[in-house]
Amino acid sequence: MKISNSKIADIEEIFRLYHSATAFQKTKYTIHWPKFETSLIETEIKENRQWKITIDGKTACVWATTFDDPQIWEAKNADPSVYIHRIATNPEFKGLNMVAKIVEWAKEYAKENYKSYVRLDTVGQNEGLINHYTKMGFKFLGLFDLENTDGLPAHYHGKPVSLFELSAI
C-alpha cells in the first residue's frame, strides 16, 4: 500500500471512482454527489491536495485535502486543521477499511503541517457515515445549517451538514 499525490494522468480514474461512489450513494441515500468539475480536480492536483492509495499498482482510494474550509466550518475554520473531502473507494478494494488508513495518514499529515485537527463533513444526517466516522475516532459535532453555500458543490445547497473532528495532537 502506498499513499501519494494524484497526478493529472489519474483524472480519468478519479472520476471513475467518483461515478462509482455516486452510483452507490443513489442506492442508499437521497443526497448524493453532483458531477464535479474537472477544473476542481486539476487545481487540487496542481496544489498537491488530491491523494490516492495504490495497492499492487491499482488505485484503491482517492480523497482531497485542504487547510482552509471557511464556508463549511465557518468560525471553527480558525482552528489549525486538515480537512478531508470526497473519499471514494475503488469497489475492488471495499472491505479493506480505506477510511482507517486515511485517518492514520491524516493524523501524521496534520502533525507534519502543525495542524491540531483532522476534520471532515457529510451532507445530511447520514447515520451510516456518522457511525462509521465515529468508529474511526471522529467526534460527531452535530448537524449545522451553512450560512453561505455560494461556490460549494450542489449537494451542499439547502442541506444541513454533519461535522466531524479528530484531535491530531
UniProtKB/TrEMBL annotation:
Transmembrane domains' residue ranges: none
Segments forming a coiled coil: none
InterPro entries: Acyl_CoA_acyltransferase (IPR016181), GNAT_dom (IPR000182)
GO molecular function terms listed in the Swiss-Prot or TrEMBL record: acyltransferase activity, transferring groups other than amino-acyl groups
Organism (species): Pedobacter roseus
Domain of life of the organism encoding this protein: Bacteria
Assigned keywords, A-Z: Transferase
Domain N-acetyltransferase: 1-162
Protein's recorded name: GNAT family N-acetyltransferase
One Pfam family of this chain: Acetyltransf_1
